[in-house]
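Supplementary Text 2. Reproducibility record for the structural model of the 463-residue chain.

All settings were left at their defaults, and a single model was retained for analysis rather than an ensemble. We include the record here because the model underlies the residue-level annotations in Supplementary Table 4.
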Amino acid sequence: MKKLILSLVGISLLFVSCSDDDNGNVTDLETANFTVTIENVVTPRPYFQGGLAAVPVGQSSPGAIGPGGVYEFTVQAGPNVLPGDGGTRLNFMTMFVQSNDLFLSPDGEGIMLFNDDGTPVTGDVTDQVLLWDAGTEVNEVTGSDNQKPQQAPDAEDVGMDENGVVTQIIGNSDGVNVLPDVSEVIRVTLANTNGTEFTVRIENVSNGMTIATPAMGAGTTAAVPMSPVVYLVHTTPNPFFVTGEAASEGVENIAEDGFAMVENARVQANTGLIIPISPGAWAIHELGVNPLFTSGSPDLGEGLEGIAEDGTPGTLAASLSAKDGVIDSDLFNTPDGATDPSPVGPGNSYSFSFTASEGDYLSLATMSIQSNDWIYTFDESGIPLFNGIAPVTGDVTSSIQLYDVGTEADEFPGAGLNQVIRQSGPNTGPADANNLVREITPSGNVPANNQVVRVTISVQQPI
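Retained model, structure tokens:
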């Protein structure tokens, strides 16, 4: 039985309980009251996926595409990234390369990737591509020296500054030239595989007669090359520009010269996966109990699957309460400062408290809510709550690991149709061919563990 002793050499001891030593003698064990806080530390970023398509199909090096040339790239997306986010959309930019600062792009809403009934959008979406004037350089007669491709390939920002705003080209005129229909220059098609993988094909359909080039001589015409494409998948509007506002440096670089480096760097810096974490369960236990799982073995079937797939901890919490070697346990499901159970997003946290003694270990599990069956947890043994007689305090995030519970086949993080945010119901999705619980290393669009979860322990005076 635990008891509080009064003092030692005039200084109050904080933590005491009793147990037997190896010789059967009663010894004093340190005891403490702990509070554990599990915080979501994800940095929210506005774009789900993005990149640069610079190498034309069939080529081995970057370059513009002329008539018949194609850029092709693949993106992953589900109907949404987070609940209520308005849905995933595709957006991109490429230079209209017989101009001072015109470019081709969808509007700020982008091209929706899923229909209202949840089916993926496929086929020709060219009618959603528009021609824009960046407002950064004064428009000249087509074929002028201040336009690509008349400029040297590495020439940059050599035309007369306009200091205007981004506007849509209406009526096939930029105020100086008669311009072709968008569909005479570009064709954009979407193909879908596996429900969430989209192949985007951007084809140059112009020809030598597409645009008049008066600056190059009366009656002359030319094709309209297109520059490498910066693309992204987003859920919030206006990822590249806002109509009626000044263009950014990255947009200007593409619109005037087809240089994508600055805008691609900005897209990459603002792309990331937002991962909520779920209600979970915890246990205080003896060493060697392995209350949640054993690495390299199948799931125990005691409720961890509920957390890993659906963020529901009730079954596991009930199992832990009756498990041999578990001293104390419970679930956590209500965010700090809230009154109702829910997952926690960036900047929010769960907390729970307990009393433990020297020799006790802590285990916990919370779902990575952009996965099929991944949890953030310690290793199978948990972590000790005392270092000698001193209770462990502070940041213990370095002990947090990401585990695949092996109960459901993995899909692309943040896009899978069988992941809890997007699935039709609980416990859906095909079984994992590898049914063993195993640690996984974050990669691709999955942030490092310490960029998702922070776990800290504080200690209070005993009762």
